[in-house]
Amino acid sequence: MNVLVTGGVGFIGYYVSLNILRKGFGVVIYDTLERSNYERVVKLRKLGVEIIEANVVNYRSFISALRKFSIDIVVHLAAYVSVSESIRKPLTYFKNNALGTAVVAEACRKADVRKIVYASSAAVYGEPKYLPIDEEHPTESLSPYGLSKLVGELFLSRYARN
Predict the structure, then answer these.
(1) Through-space distance between the first and last CA atoms of the chain, rounded to whole angstroms
(2) Eight-class DSSP state of 72
(3) For 121-149, how does the pLDDT look when each residue is reduced to its tens digit (9 = 90+)?
(4) Per-residue b/e over 16-44, b at no fewer than 16 CB within 10 Å?
């Protein structure tokens, strides 16, 4: 089974990728590398992981990678994650996080990928109304970052139903 990890060189993506490798699955990473750690790139390449340097908003490149490596599952972790930066650059966050998720969903549909795993954020909930927060908690994002992750959740939810 082959798994493509978007944002696979980021902090969470790196450890997810290593864990998938340990389980014996093939791993392909799709990452811009713009905010990555060079040592992680070197280690992953030494382990034989293919790293595609590209952005998830590039539909042609993304679907090409899915087909080339016969991907079965996509773990979608690629996202800009700074609340304060999202306030300064809301369009950048919406494009990368929300549009990027839509591109991932459509490319996966067209390439017959069996499953998408999406990492959202507690930022979609805003100020907690109660604790612990569960998936039934109202979503009232306070930042463009939280809103961009919520749009991704909603998009994938509707896509799964259709």
Answers:
(1) 25
(2) S
(3) 999 999 999 999 998 999 999 999 999 99
(4) bbbebbeeeebbbbbbbbeebeeebbeeb
Domain count across the chain:
1
Residue range of the domain that includes 82: 2-161
Catalytic positions, written as ranges: 145
CATH number at residue 10: 3.40.50.720
Joined together, the tokens standing for residue 112 give: 């017959």
79-124 pLDDT per residue, tens = 999 999 999 999 999 999 999 999 999 999 999 999 999 999 999 9
Q: How far apart are CA 80 and CA 121, in angstroms?
A: 11
Instruction: Give the global pTM.
Output: 0.94
**Please, are residues 23 and 3 in contact by the beta-carbon 8 Å criterion?**
no
Q: Are 4 and 21 in contact (CB under 8 A)?
A: no
Residue pair 129/137 in contact by the 8 Å Cβ criterion: yes
Residue with tokens 């087909």: 67
Cα 1 to chain centroid, rounded:
19
| Cα dihedral across residues 77, 96, 54, 103: positive or negative | positive
Residue 101: which residues within 8 A CB-CB, separation 6 or more? Answer: 56, 76, 118, 151, 152, 155, 156
